[in-house]
Amino acid sequence: MLEKSKTPALTRALDILNFISAHGACSVLQIQEALNIPKSSIYNILEELCRQNYLIKSNDGSYSLWLKVVELSNQVLVQMDLRAIAKPYLTDLMLATGLMCHLGVLDQKAAYYVLKIESNSSIRVHSYEGKRLALERSGIGKCLLAFQPEDLIQQTIQNLNFIAKTENSIMSIEAYLQELDLIRKKGWSFDNSEDVEGVRCIAAPIFNSHNTLEAAISIVGASIQINENNQEELVRLTTECARKISLKIGARINQY
């Protein structure tokens, strides 16, 4: 037996979306009879789903799925496809640098690795797909936030936790904003052992067909693997890889 929902209104809204998805356009009566939703609730739920563009009401009074569902579906497909698109490029980057490579995305208050390409190096850095990264202390996190709209940046940084994980950790909003500005000017970001002592990261943004940020890639290694002698070449390889992936998913050439 299913556990009783703690949020019945949300459950009913999801049930309605699933029912219409399975059966196509439906009348209020069809939905009510199939899902046993009280009249006192169903009209409010349908009205809100229409207001949020999850449903649209036709002239005959029936309800169909609408644009918000398509938008969310497209986002999922893009992220799923992006993993497949990025994998060969990141594999080439790993072979060229000898370093572990990642594809990461932004999710509200954190960054997450959605793809990892392990290196053959004897020096290993612990990482895994699904790993959560602090936006204020990781190269890929800083890169993902730097290229967001200004209002989102300002909203997000108010919730960041500036603590000293290492002696290089950024410790204030002012310093962090300066770092984001520098990242936008350079076109790439650098984690100089700011989250884990002795671990460095170079990250670069991936843009989509709207020339807005889609994701970011990074190379990660120990400080002896990413150093002053090879950093310029590693930056070139990483940004070139990000450029190729961006163009592959439709970014305009003049972005670069």
UniProtKB/TrEMBL annotation:
Residues 7-67 form the HTH iclR-type domain. One of its GO terms (biological process) is negative regulation of DNA-templated transcription. The keyword Glycosyltransferase does not apply. InterPro entries: GAF-like_dom_sf (IPR029016), HTH_MetabolicPath_Reg (IPR050707), Tscrpt_reg_IclR_C (IPR014757), Tscrpt_reg_IclR_N (IPR005471), WH-like_DNA-bd_sf (IPR036388), WH_DNA-bd_sf (IPR036390). GO terms for molecular function: DNA binding; DNA-binding transcription factor activity. SMART domains: HTH_ICLR. Residues 68-251 form the IclR-ED domain. Keywords: DNA-binding, Transcription, Transcription regulation. It holds the Pfam family HTH_IclR. Transmembrane segments: none annotated. The keyword Disulfide bond does not apply. This is Putative HTH-type transcriptional regulator RhmR. It comes from Acinetobacter bereziniae (Acinetobacter genomosp. 10). The lineage of its organism: Bacteria, Pseudomonadati, Pseudomonadota, Gammaproteobacteria, Moraxellales. The gene is rhmR.
